[in-house]
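Hi there, hope your week has been kind to you so far. No rush at all, and the record is pasted right below.
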Amino acid sequence: MRIKGSSTRTKPAEAVTSRTTLEEQTAAFLKKGGEIEEVPRGISGQQQVSYFRRSTPATRKPAEIPGAKPAVKS
Protein backbone atom coordinates (compact mmCIF):
# COMPACT_ATOMS: atom_id res chain seq x y z
CA MET A 1 0.00 0.00 0.00
CA ARG A 2 1.33 3.42 -0.96
CA ILE A 3 1.54 6.21 1.61
CA LYS A 4 0.58 9.59 0.25
CA GLY A 5 3.11 12.38 0.75
CA SER A 6 0.52 14.92 1.86
CA SER A 7 -0.17 13.07 5.10
CA THR A 8 3.50 13.19 6.11
CA ARG A 9 3.88 16.96 5.77
CA THR A 10 4.26 18.98 8.91
CA LYS A 11 1.65 21.59 9.63
CA PRO A 12 2.69 25.25 9.39
CA ALA A 13 3.20 27.18 12.61
CA GLU A 14 0.11 28.81 14.00
CA ALA A 15 -0.31 32.56 13.60
CA VAL A 16 -0.43 32.95 17.39
CA THR A 17 3.05 31.46 17.71
CA SER A 18 4.38 33.68 14.94
CA ARG A 19 2.80 36.78 16.46
CA THR A 20 4.25 36.01 19.89
CA THR A 21 7.70 35.42 18.42
CA LEU A 22 7.50 38.67 16.47
CA GLU A 23 6.48 40.60 19.58
CA GLU A 24 9.41 39.11 21.54
CA GLN A 25 11.90 39.95 18.79
CA THR A 26 10.56 43.51 18.52
CA ALA A 27 10.81 44.01 22.28
CA ALA A 28 14.41 42.72 22.29
CA PHE A 29 15.29 45.05 19.38
CA LEU A 30 13.85 48.08 21.17
CA LYS A 31 15.54 47.10 24.44
CA LYS A 32 18.93 47.12 22.67
CA GLY A 33 18.28 50.72 21.63
CA GLY A 34 16.89 50.03 18.19
CA GLU A 35 14.39 52.43 16.69
CA ILE A 36 11.39 51.73 14.52
CA GLU A 37 10.79 54.21 11.74
CA GLU A 38 7.23 54.71 10.56
CA VAL A 39 7.11 54.84 6.77
CA PRO A 40 4.22 56.73 5.17
CA ARG A 41 1.74 54.61 3.26
CA GLY A 42 2.62 54.27 -0.41
CA ILE A 43 6.35 54.87 0.08
CA SER A 44 8.71 52.07 -0.93
CA GLY A 45 12.11 51.29 0.52
CA GLN A 46 13.36 50.35 -2.91
CA GLN A 47 15.24 52.80 -5.05
CA GLN A 48 13.61 54.07 -8.21
CA VAL A 49 15.35 52.13 -10.96
CA SER A 50 14.14 51.89 -14.50
CA TYR A 51 14.77 48.42 -15.85
CA PHE A 52 13.78 49.47 -19.34
CA ARG A 53 16.22 52.31 -19.92
CA ARG A 54 18.52 52.12 -22.89
CA SER A 55 22.17 51.43 -22.17
CA THR A 56 24.80 53.80 -23.52
CA PRO A 57 28.56 53.38 -23.91
CA ALA A 58 29.00 55.50 -20.77
CA THR A 59 26.80 53.21 -18.66
CA ARG A 60 28.05 49.86 -19.99
CA LYS A 61 30.60 47.86 -18.07
CA PRO A 62 33.41 46.18 -20.00
CA ALA A 63 32.91 42.48 -20.62
CA GLU A 64 34.46 40.21 -18.02
CA ILE A 65 36.25 37.12 -19.27
CA PRO A 66 36.14 34.22 -16.78
CA GLY A 67 39.62 33.34 -15.54
CA ALA A 68 41.22 36.52 -16.91
CA LYS A 69 42.99 38.95 -14.60
CA PRO A 70 41.20 42.29 -14.22
CA ALA A 71 42.82 45.27 -15.91
CA VAL A 72 44.56 47.60 -13.48
CA LYS A 73 44.23 51.32 -14.13
CA SER A 74 47.28 53.41 -13.29
